Amino acid sequence: MLYGTLFIVCIYYILPLWVMVMTSLKGMPEIRVGNIFAPPVEITFEPWVKAWSEACTGLNCDGLSRGFWNSVRILVPSVILSIAVASVNGYALVNWRFKGADVFFTILIFGSFIPYQVMLYPIVILLREMGIYGTLSGLVLVHTIFGMPILTLLFRNYFSSLPEELFKAARVDGAGFWAIYFRIMLPMSMPIFVVAVILQVTGIWNDFLFGVVFTKPDIYPMTVQLNNIVNSVQGVKEYNVNMAATLLTGLVPLTIYFISGKLFVRGIAAGAVKG
Amino acid sequence: MHSISVKELTLNFGAVSVLKDLNLDVAEGEFIVLLGPSGCGKSTLLNCLAGLLDITDGEIWIKGKNVTWAEPSERGIGMVFQSYALYPQMTVRGNLSFGLKNARMPQAEIDKRVARAAEILQIGPLLDRKPGALSGGQRQRVAIGRALVRDVDVFLFDEPLSNLDAKLRSELRVEIKRLHSRLNNTMVYVTHDQIEALTLADRIAVMRGGIIQQLDAPQVIYNRPANLFVAGFIGSPAMNFLHGATVDGGRRFEAGGIGLSLEGYEGGAVGARPEVVLGLRPEHLEIVPGAEEGRTIPAVVELDEPMGADSLVWLKAGGAQMSVRVPVERRMARGAAVHLRVDMTKASLFDAATEQRI
Amino acid sequence: MADGARRNPLFRNLTAKLAAVPMVLTALVVFAGGTVWTVVYSFTSSKLLPKLKWVGLDQYERLWGASRWLVAIENLLIYGVLSLVLTISIGFMLAVLLDQKIRFEDTFRTIMLYPFALSFIVTGLVWQWLLNPEFGVPSVIKAMGWESFELDLLHDPKIVLYGLLVAGLWQGTGFVMCIMLAGLRGIDEDIWKACRVDGIPRWKTYLFVIVPMMRPVFITTLVIVASGIVKLYDLVVAQTSGGPGNASQVPAMYVYDYMFQAQNLGQGFAASSMMLVSVLIVLIPWAYLEFGGRKRG
């Protein structure tokens, strides 16, 4: 009874993935006549190839590959920068408390609940003033800013769980701010860095809104391009290509998810449990 | 020249005052123990000495230098922590040399110092292990070694033995004492364990509420506590207290129908006071069969607790519960009516209002 | 530095303060500053460019007179309440199911949580395909013999919201389940033992002992899920593009369109300020409970 319920629930969760894979492996004629749940009679990888290199977005027809590489170019610096900044924040907040630090932190946490829409336009202006509106660096900066609350919280909570005496001992040993950070804190914090990377890779890869607002079409991330391909109105809908494209976009976070397992769960819990 | 000199040190956390106008002079080579219940400010004071906490007001001098605002590493101190605070990712050798490397000391000198510390503490074979592979006692030795290699005149210990089990604790206690007699440097040692305090200290500073209540040699603290708090805090089982009054121009103590002559009290003439507290240590009372005028208190046995070396008898006397230390062979029957002979030369008398010793 | 001179407090821990500059700038300039800026400009007649030409509450009057905005708000309310109640109750029930010391717990959890790792865009597109009236689930049901079955969750303005809801639940319940499971695991085993000794049935224990004990977890989840719902945008864009017509519009979409498409900034600012207000309605009582209470306690 218990397992039965769970089994049925699981079908609900798995079915979309199943359908995605099946559809992406079928030819259009088979889709038109067949059942979406049925496995393909004749397996074809044509839709995948097409999604990757030929699908049209309305502007160009070089498939998702462009978006994929854009996303990679956005992802790598964003993940590194946001984690670097946030880990230093967390460390400073826990070990080098200065007046007003908690006020800024509180604003940061509350800021994470404010709808992004409220801050979009001021950021557009800021980026324009800095001359990086519509560029990769602009988007990287935006991801760093909006990743900051959750990551700072994550690191703050982790660092405050480390024994404070360790920090004191290092100070007596004459280590300064950066020496303690790099020599003592970093080597002890690898698990939380992994959690942060997982959180950021999935978060940034899945972003849509910032990609649309802060970049130009030729550097659109994969999610934006995917939406443009699938929801573009021209021509006949090629559902198999669409599903292949959708799967391709979901592949990166899914891979991270299945590899990381429990760490992903830990990242979620870290975000949910306030310190 | 004092090794450490604390002048009118005040520390506030927001509106809360943690240390109040505290003065403390430590002589060169002296072993000072800061003792008190948790929250009394003893660890806080140690952290101020180390420079790990910014003080609100006052001055701290170490070795004739004003270090009030100096960085911890510039103060010429070494520190040992309760949780050992060893860097888990470094080997023992790395732990010992981390501070020296930060001070940009030549490698040859570092090696020399590490070798010397390892020899003193007998941790030579452990040098290439990580802290995770060490036992509690070994870890604390390494932590002491980290202070040792700094070759400083002042050692600060923050409850260094609290995380160890009873047997190891007494072993390391002896070792710390041996270390002190060998190095002869100044040590400030924080603990809440009075045995550690009484065995190790040249002088004990008993603290409460951010104030040093009494600063004296262990024997003085034990025998002549300056106030009720110190009297009650030091000693296990605690000192017996009788609430009463001094009458007859201060020659007699009366409480709940009992009268004791104050003859022999080391405080001399105490005068007549309406409210006083007489403090008597369990070992300064003797159970005798018959009453002696002015020297005994009638009592009824409630319970006896054999403790191995000796035995503790709990009695009801003068309206209060009292304990008496007796030889273990002496068993007392419950309900037996006896008399307690008071050794007035070793008693303490406090003013009930000011709580100060008279 | 042994002169004992007190350094200027501004320069103590200077490195730490410098290292915190990005955080301070983000908090003050972007989060606080940006929010205030948007609210201020929502009282102007900014069109293509932001201009400080005051028009009072005009933008808000226009906003609340626009049928598209009213639909968006109504949708958000319906979707929000349903999604909140369903995600949390389903999430909790799943967590309870997984908490029964079952075998393959990790496998079940992995399956229920994987949608959360996906982009809303992916989720939206998958469900767009699944609910496709010609080839999707409805056609399969028809093919199985239920000829009269008609359910077009994407093109019928009356029920399009439920189409979004199915997709939203698919993605979000796993997340809530995970938090709830962590909460359940945080409860002292002795509570269970005590209830068993007292002979309280399991379901009663859950309802009257465990749920009240997990109040903080529920509240936190509620806040996180609710603030996520207000931001709802990607899913709608991908799954329905706000259609059919304006039937599945949401406020975030309205803001985006006015700010970046219709070049009517003032409208966009007013709409986003209203979004802010709606979040504050959720946030302020929570912050009061969470932090105000803690300070007193």
UniProtKB/TrEMBL annotation, chain A:
<comment type="similarity">
    <text>Belongs to the binding-protein-dependent transport system permease family.</text>
</comment>
<keyword id="KW-0813">Transport</keyword>
<feature type="transmembrane region" description="Helical">
    <location>
        <begin position="179"/>
        <end position="199"/>
    </location>
</feature>
<keyword id="KW-1133">Transmembrane helix</keyword>
<feature type="transmembrane region" description="Helical">
    <location>
        <begin position="104"/>
        <end position="127"/>
    </location>
</feature>
<feature type="transmembrane region" description="Helical">
    <location>
        <begin position="6"/>
        <end position="25"/>
    </location>
</feature>
<protein>
    <submittedName>
        <fullName>Carbohydrate ABC transporter permease</fullName>
    </submittedName>
</protein>
<keyword id="KW-0472">Membrane</keyword>
<dbReference type="GO" id="GO:0005886">
    <property type="term" value="C:plasma membrane"/>
</dbReference>
<dbReference type="GO" id="GO:0055085">
    <property type="term" value="P:transmembrane transport"/>
</dbReference>
<feature type="domain" description="ABC transmembrane type-1">
    <location>
        <begin position="68"/>
        <end position="260"/>
    </location>
</feature>
<dbReference type="InterPro" id="IPR000515">
    <property type="entry name" value="MetI-like"/>
</dbReference>
<feature type="transmembrane region" description="Helical">
    <location>
        <begin position="139"/>
        <end position="159"/>
    </location>
</feature>
<feature type="transmembrane region" description="Helical">
    <location>
        <begin position="74"/>
        <end position="92"/>
    </location>
</feature>
<dbReference type="Pfam" id="PF00528">
    <property type="entry name" value="BPD_transp_1"/>
</dbReference>
Automatic annotation (TrEMBL), chain B:
<dbReference type="InterPro" id="IPR008995">
    <property type="entry name" value="Mo/tungstate-bd_C_term_dom"/>
</dbReference>
<protein>
    <submittedName>
        <fullName>sn-glycerol-3-phosphate ABC transporter ATP-binding protein UgpC</fullName>
    </submittedName>
</protein>
<dbReference type="GO" id="GO:0055052">
    <property type="term" value="C:ATP-binding cassette (ABC) transporter complex, substrate-binding subunit-containing"/>
</dbReference>
<dbReference type="Pfam" id="PF00005">
    <property type="entry name" value="ABC_tran"/>
</dbReference>
<dbReference type="InterPro" id="IPR015855">
    <property type="entry name" value="ABC_transpr_MalK-like"/>
</dbReference>
<keyword id="KW-0067">ATP-binding</keyword>
<dbReference type="Pfam" id="PF08402">
    <property type="entry name" value="TOBE_2"/>
</dbReference>
<dbReference type="InterPro" id="IPR012340">
    <property type="entry name" value="NA-bd_OB-fold"/>
</dbReference>
<dbReference type="GO" id="GO:0005524">
    <property type="term" value="F:ATP binding"/>
</dbReference>
<dbReference type="InterPro" id="IPR003593">
    <property type="entry name" value="AAA+_ATPase"/>
</dbReference>
<dbReference type="GO" id="GO:0140359">
    <property type="term" value="F:ABC-type transporter activity"/>
</dbReference>
<feature type="domain" description="ABC transporter">
    <location>
        <begin position="4"/>
        <end position="234"/>
    </location>
</feature>
<dbReference type="GO" id="GO:0008643">
    <property type="term" value="P:carbohydrate transport"/>
</dbReference>
<dbReference type="InterPro" id="IPR017871">
    <property type="entry name" value="ABC_transporter-like_CS"/>
</dbReference>
<dbReference type="InterPro" id="IPR013611">
    <property type="entry name" value="Transp-assoc_OB_typ2"/>
</dbReference>
TrEMBL record, chain C:
<dbReference type="InterPro" id="IPR000515">
    <property type="entry name" value="MetI-like"/>
</dbReference>
<dbReference type="GO" id="GO:0005886">
    <property type="term" value="C:plasma membrane"/>
</dbReference>
<keyword id="KW-1133">Transmembrane helix</keyword>
<feature type="transmembrane region" description="Helical">
    <location>
        <begin position="269"/>
        <end position="289"/>
    </location>
</feature>
<feature type="transmembrane region" description="Helical">
    <location>
        <begin position="20"/>
        <end position="43"/>
    </location>
</feature>
<dbReference type="Pfam" id="PF00528">
    <property type="entry name" value="BPD_transp_1"/>
</dbReference>
<keyword id="KW-0812">Transmembrane</keyword>
<keyword id="KW-0813">Transport</keyword>
<feature type="transmembrane region" description="Helical">
    <location>
        <begin position="159"/>
        <end position="184"/>
    </location>
</feature>
<feature type="transmembrane region" description="Helical">
    <location>
        <begin position="110"/>
        <end position="130"/>
    </location>
</feature>
<comment type="similarity">
    <text>Belongs to the binding-protein-dependent transport system permease family.</text>
</comment>
<keyword id="KW-1003">Cell membrane</keyword>
<feature type="domain" description="ABC transmembrane type-1">
    <location>
        <begin position="73"/>
        <end position="286"/>
    </location>
</feature>
<feature type="transmembrane region" description="Helical">
    <location>
        <begin position="76"/>
        <end position="98"/>
    </location>
</feature>
<dbReference type="InterPro" id="IPR051393">
    <property type="entry name" value="ABC_transporter_permease"/>
</dbReference>
